[in-house]
Design a protein that fits this description.
Blueprint (H helix, E strand, L loop, with lengths): L8 H52 L46 E3 L1 H4 L5 E4 L12 E2 L5
Antiparallel strand pairs: 1-2, 2-3
């Protein structure tokens, strides 16, 4: 008897199940790492913004007010408490305040609202909802 070449339906189904299982495992690992990379990118951006805020305070003696926001790092404020010794080129490279890892703007709370003379920078996280579990605050970063 001669056997015919080719695969049976069961053999094809088994191969497809194996491929689907491998795709699920690889996909889950890649997506998980992608999310972690966005969190780390956001933490780095917050640290960079904190450095710029410290330079702003060093030059002017105070942090920007909440209303002035992080925009005060690239454009000299003309309302509220005005800086006396603003750096000629601002405190950040470029003409835009960086965004977080999910391309959302950071929330800035200045000393006029923190009550302790400091500031807080907040990323609203992946869900883009303020005051939710995935928010990243400058006060929580070590």
């Amino acid at each position: 008897m001669r056997s015919e070449g080719g695969f049976t339906l069961i053999e094809i189904m088994v191969v497809l199940l194996i491929i689907a299982g491998l795709a699920y495992i690889v996909g889950t690992n890649v997506i998980g790492r992608f999310g972690e990379a966005k969190k780390e990118e956001t933490k780095i951006q917050i640290k960079n913004l904190e450095s710029a805020l410290k330079l702003f305070k060093l030059d002017n003696g105070f942090y920007p007010e909440t209303q002035q926001g992080l925009l005060a790092l690239i454009q000299q404020p003309t309302s509220g408490r005005e800086p006396c010794c603003y750096a000629k080129d601002g405190y950040l490279d470029g003409d835009q305040v960086p965004k977080d890892g999910w391309k959302s703007e950071f929330v800035y709370v200045g000393p006029d609202q923190t009550g302790d003379g400091s500031y807080e920078i907040i990323s609203i996280g992946e869900d883009a909802v303020q005051q939710s579990e995935d928010d990243i605050s400058s006060r929580a970063i070590q």
